[in-house]
Amino acid sequence: MKYILRIKETRHLLAIRDIIVRPGTSVDSGRPLFVIVRVENMGANKEEDIRVNVAIPDLGIWELVLETI
Question: 10 with 42: CB under 8 angstroms?
Answer without folding.
Answer: yes
